[in-house]
Amino acid sequence: MPRSKGDHEARRHDVSAAVWQVMATRGFAGLTLRAVAAELGATTGLLTHYFPTKQALVAYALDLLEERTLSRPRRQSGGGLAALRDAILDILPLTSEARDSNRIWVSSWDNALADPALSADYARKYAEGRDRMLQRVIAAQEAGELPPGEPTDLAAGAQAFALGLVVQALFDPAAFPPGRQTELLDNYLAGLAAGPCPISSPDPHA
Amino acid sequence: MPRSKGDHEARRHDVSAAVWQVMATRGFAGLTLRAVAAELGATTGLLTHYFPTKQALVAYALDLLEERTLSRPRRQSGGGLAALRDAILDILPLTSEARDSNRIWVSSWDNALADPALSADYARKYAEGRDRMLQRVIAAQEAGELPPGEPTDLAAGAQAFALGLVVQALFDPAAFPPGRQTELLDNYLAGLAAGPCPISSPDPHA
Fold first, then answer.
1. CA angle A11, A15, A18 (to 5 degrees)
2. Does A123 contact B at CB distance below 8 Å?
3. Dist. CA A25–CA A22, nearest whole Å
4. Rounded CA gap, B64 and B43, in Å?
5. Mutual orientation of helices A80-91 and A178-194 as an angle, nearest 10°?
6. From B114, B190, B191, residue closest to A30, measured CB to CB
7. What is the pLDDT of residues B151-170, one digit of tens each?
8. Residue A159's closest CA among A140, A137, A178, A180?
9. ipTM (interface pTM)
10. Which intervals hold domain HTH tetR-type (chains A, B) (predicted)?
11. Which residues in A lie closer than 8 A to residue B21 (C-beta atoms)?
């Protein structure tokens, strides 16, 4: 009996889930056909049908990472500064799903930095991320929620803050539980909102 | 003729240099006996004398990374806020040496996150790094260079900023040359120094 399209889709879904699980626990360094087969309860032989080479498996994993990142739900609690806060909350490992995807992103940096084409692709992705933050910084400045100042600096700083907090939280989840991450973010944003204080000059009418 | 201690030390130095160069260009994912042998112009057989297993090579590479990180020269341009700035400048990839060591650190995160013991060791290292920043934040607050406020938040935020800027600069050195990294750091520190502005209350004597 020929396999139906539904069977094929179901199997593909299972393979994706197994690849994801292996990456979330072992990283790209631990991503092997053998590990995926064990996770799937299948033979390595079956998997070579999907992934004839290690490179094919890694390419599939990178596509899966991008697909899941793009399709994840996004917070939308407002415009301006609230939207900037949402963008950073969407990055941070505040849930187990977000922890897994961040752990896989961080894990992928080793491969990406060793491959000039992939590295350029990552640089483009991060530049796009900064640009999304930039739009929100500008909106927050226009709304008077952030002080004037070079918005590209604020956007690059916000992305640095988010990425660095991700790394710290992945290595030390006990020191950076979700509430602590959010608190640090809110303190960071409060600092941006305060900005350089107006210089208090002596009252000329005194 | 038996080999002298000097020969042994010279060979060890060459092996370290080759391991470092492989990690700087290919990362931990590309760290193999074969790659180190090629870099050294030696046989894989010779290297198995130093590294009987892949694990031994990785352990050696991690030790080398820590040793070079601990022994690197540190900036000492002052106390308080200047010392906090120095600590962050010491982290950023502002020179080719610092770029290589950062690229190797970032590359090592994949392995470290997959290994609970290594992960705990990294968490401890980053906690020590935050503690060093904390001491400098407190000194800057005491000197009146930073506003009062929870110093542990400022220290964790500063480490996040530094780590995230490292990642961005590694992927996009054209967008983050040394001068731009320093500029972003100085803007970040200026924001911290400004802090929450004093609330201007109506003059009760008006």
1. 140
2. yes
3. 5
4. 22
5. 150
6. B114
7. 999 999 999 999 999 999 99
8. A137
9. 0.89
10. 9-69
11. none
